[in-house]
Amino acid sequence: MTIAIKSKAALALALALTLSACGGSDNAAKVDDQSLVTNVEETPQASGGFDAPVVTQDKVSYTLSSPAHFTPGKFASGMLPGQINERFNLSVSNGSAADLDLATLIVKGSTTTGACVDIFDGDNQMEGAPTTPLAAGATATFSWGLSCPGKSGEDISVVLSNGTDNLISVTGKLA
Asked: What is the DSSP string of the chain?
């Protein structure tokens, strides 16, 4: 064999051995997926209804407007066939002494029929929570959309969470 062929063969063998190790082995470290899940405290700090301020222990006020039907825009995502598309405005007033990270806000909706899913729709200004921290004493208002199973007049519950604690729970009816 020539030197060029030998070096190509050696390179191919080294590459094959390297790639064969990618699958790992039975002795590889195993990660418990449950250890990566954050347990959320189930009981909300405060509860109330739509169109009324709900204030947490740290003096942050959340007001969710009553749900209203809407037609998602052309490039919207998240809505499911056969479900009702509901939107509401969320106003947050930071009465605490520290900045509030709204980017960690999780909105979970459910009806008596089942769980709702988020709708993101730039055409209807439903783009999630602001990513800039809300300064102490400041207020922010933004829109949120949910695709929910059920019919008009059915009970809906919306829970706001920060990933570790359920902050508030608001209940009312689908539009």
From this structure: --HHHHHHHHHHHHHHHHHHGGG--TTS----GGGGSPPPBSS-SEEEETTS-EE-TTSEEEEEPPPEE----TT-B---TTSEEEEEEEEEEE-SSS-B-GGG-EEEEEESS-B-EEEBBGGGTB--S-SSPBPTT-EEEEEEEEEESS-TT-EEEEEEE-SSBEEEEEEEE--
Q: What is the pLDDT of residues 25-38, one digit of tens each?
A: 455 455 555 555 55
Summarize pLDDT for 127-157 with one digit per residue, the tens. Answer: 999 999 999 999 999 999 999 999 999 999 9
Contacts of 137 (CB under 8 A, 6+ apart): 94, 95
* 157 vs 175: CA distance, rounded Å: 13
List, in order of start, the domains of the chain with CATH numbers.
Answer: 39-173 (2.60.40.1240)
Cα angle 11, 13, 14 (rounded to 5 degrees) comes to: 65
